[in-house]
Amino acid sequence: MDIELIRRLSIPAETKVVLCVLDGLGGLPGPRGRSELDLANTRHLDRLATDGAIGLTIPVGYGITPGSGPGHMALFGLDPLTYDVGRGVLEATGIDFKLGPNDLAARGNFCTVDANGLITDRRAGRVATEITAEICASLRDIQLPGVEVFVEPVREHRFVLVLRGEGLADALNETDPQREGVAPLEVRALAPEAERTAELARQFVAETRKRIAGRDQANHLTLRGWAKRPDLPQLPELWKLRAAACAVYPMYRGLARLVGMETLDAGQTLETQIEAIRSHWDDYDFFFLHFKYTDSAGEDGDFDRKMHAIEDFDACLPKLVALNPDVIIVAGDHSTPSVMAAHSWHPVPVLLRGKTVRADNRHVFTELECAQGGLGTFPAKELLPLAFAHAGRLTKYGA
Amino acid sequence: MDIELIRRLSIPAETKVVLCVLDGLGGLPGPRGRSELDLANTRHLDRLATDGAIGLTIPVGYGITPGSGPGHMALFGLDPLTYDVGRGVLEATGIDFKLGPNDLAARGNFCTVDANGLITDRRAGRVATEITAEICASLRDIQLPGVEVFVEPVREHRFVLVLRGEGLADALNETDPQREGVAPLEVRALAPEAERTAELARQFVAETRKRIAGRDQANHLTLRGWAKRPDLPQLPELWKLRAAACAVYPMYRGLARLVGMETLDAGQTLETQIEAIRSHWDDYDFFFLHFKYTDSAGEDGDFDRKMHAIEDFDACLPKLVALNPDVIIVAGDHSTPSVMAAHSWHPVPVLLRGKTVRADNRHVFTELECAQGGLGTFPAKELLPLAFAHAGRLTKYGA
Fold first, then answer.
1. Single pTM value for the model
2. Cα–Cα distance between B329 and B313 in angstroms, integer?
3. B368 at the A interface (CB within 8 A)?
C-alpha cells in the first residue's frame, strides 16, 4: 500500500499484533520428495492454519531473490524496490553499530598484497576475528579533516568503516577488483558531490596502508557497499502504534530500528525471546519476532536441520499464542531451500490468524497448501497492512 | 487497465454486457460456521458459476475498506486511488442532485449550540427530516456574490450545500470540531486559491446562523467534505458503447452518471429493475444493475436478512439470464460481513459468464470456492476490461 495512504487511514487501536519471521522459511522438496516445512512435525502451526488463512508472499518480485534487507523491508510493509538499505548500512547494523543521519558506512575487507602491491589473497586468509579486532583498534585514531572515523571488526577479515560528518556522499566506487594479481582500486567519486568524500576515503586508505603495510597478512584493504542510513518511514508514526523487535541477531534488530522499532533485550533463544515479548506485552502494540535458524540451516544445505529448526519454532508457538494476540502472523523474509543452500526467489508460506480472518478450509501449513490458500499469492509488502486491517487499525477509504 | 490503453484498444461490438452489483456481497462465517452467501440457497448463481468462472476481487487494496464511491469506481474499471469522489459530491449524488462542473458541494449537519455558541449536540437530536427540509427551504434565498446557492435536505439533521459559480475551490477545512462543548470552527481556506470560496462559505454560515439562531434545536450548522465534481473518464467514450444504470438508490445512479452512464427509471424492486433493462435491451450495450439490500442487511448485522437478500437476487436472476447477455457479471463493491456490521476489506466473490470464459470446474458460488476459482484473486478495477474482452470489445495489443 502507498505510504501516504497508510498515514491517512491508520488509526490507533487497543489491539496486539505479532509478526513471527522464520528467516528463509520457504523450501523445496528434498530427497524424500517433500519440503522441510512439509516434513516437519508442526501441529501448532497447522492448528493456526486451520483457524486462520494461509497463502504465499512474493518478497520483491517474480524471480527476484531478496537479501535480508529487502526481505524484511517488505515484511515491514515497505516496498523494497523503493526503500533500499545499502550494504554498508546492513553491515554496520549487523554489529549493532547505531548509525546517525550523517554517517557514511562501508564494508571493508582486509586483504594481502605482495611487494608490488598486487593482491595475493582478497580475504587475507580469512584472518582470525581477534586479529581484525586488533588491527581495527590500531586504526581508530586516524585523523581526517572534518569527520569522525569509526573502524569496527565484523568477522574474520571483514570490518566496517563509518565516517561521520556533514555533507558526506555515498556515490563512491568499490575498491575490491574482485580478482587477485592486481592492486586494490583507488576510491573515486561517481558524482561531483562525492569528490570531497572520495578524497577523505583515499586519505583513510593511505594512512591505513601505511600502518599495516609491514604485516605478512592483512596488509591492505578494500572498501565497498558505501551507504548512508536510508530515510525510511517510521512504523510508530506511520501506524500510530508502539513497535518492538525481538531478535537474537543484531542485523535484524538493526533493520527493525531503521523503521523505528524499539528493540527488546531478547536473550539468545526463542524461549527468552518469547519471554521478552510476554514481559513487555503491555508496552507495545506490535511485536516483530525474528527466528534465524531456518535460514542458517537452509544456507548450509542442511535439510534435516532446517526441518528441526521449524519444529523448534513450532514447539514454542503455544507460548506466543497463549498471550492471545489479536492477530498473529507467521511469515518468512524469503525462501532458503536446503537443496539450493542459498536464498531464492520462491514465494514464501504465510499464515494469518485473527478474529476477522476468513478461514480457508486449509489445515496444514506447507508450501503446497499455501499455494491453494485463501490469502492467495501476493506481494509481501501488503502483508502488514492486511494484518493491521484485521487488528482494526485501518479506517475506511472514501465515503 | 490503464485508461489510455483502454481508449486505444476498445472497439465497438454488437454484444451485451450486464454487470450485477450485489452491494456488500462478501461475508464471513456466522454462528453456524458458514457465510451468508454460503448458507443462502443460490441455485441460479451456482448454475452460472458452473457455466462460467469465479474468483475474488480486491476493491482498492489489501486491507483497505472501501466506501461506496471507491468500491464502485473500481467496478467501473477506474482506479479508485486515482479517481477520487469527494464526500460532498457523494452526498449530493445520494439525493439525486445533478452536479454541474462549476459546483462545489459540502455535507452539512445542523447542530445545537447553547447561549454561548458552544455545541451541545452535534446532530441536533437527529431532528426529523421534515424539519430539516423546512430549514433548508428557508435558506434557499440566501444571496452570495457571484454564486448560486442550493440547500437540500438529506435525512435527519443532514443536508447538502451546493455553491454554483466560476472559480470555486474545494480546499476548505471541515467546521465540525468532532466534539461537543466547543463552537463550530470557522471556514478557512487551506490553499490560497480557496480564499474567495472560504469567504463565501463564511457568509453563508453567518447568514444561516442569523436565521436559525432563535431555534431551540438545530440552531447552528457544520460543513465538511467540500468537493467538486471529479473529472472522470466517461465509459461511453472510453469503451465506445452505450451504458445504462439501473439502481433503486440515488447514490448509485449518481455514481453511474459521474462516469457517463444514462440512468433508467427502474422502480423500487429488482423485478422493476430487470423489467427496465428488458425494455431498454436494444438501446444500450452495457447495463449496470445495483442491488442494495445485501449491504443494508450486512450493515445492520442481520445475517439471515443478508442471506435472504442474496436469495431474493438469486430468484430474479433467471429473468436476467433469459435476456441472453453475451457476458454477465455478478460482483460486489466490497464485503459487508454481517458479523462485523460494517464494510470490510475482505476480497469479494465475483462470477463471470460468457461464451469465451474458461470454465473452472467450480460449481458453487461461495467465498471459499471463489478463493479457489479460475479467475484468481485480482484487483476489482480489472474486472470490467476482462468482461469487455469476453464481449469482443477489446482488440489486440501489438502486432
1. 0.90
2. 13
3. yes
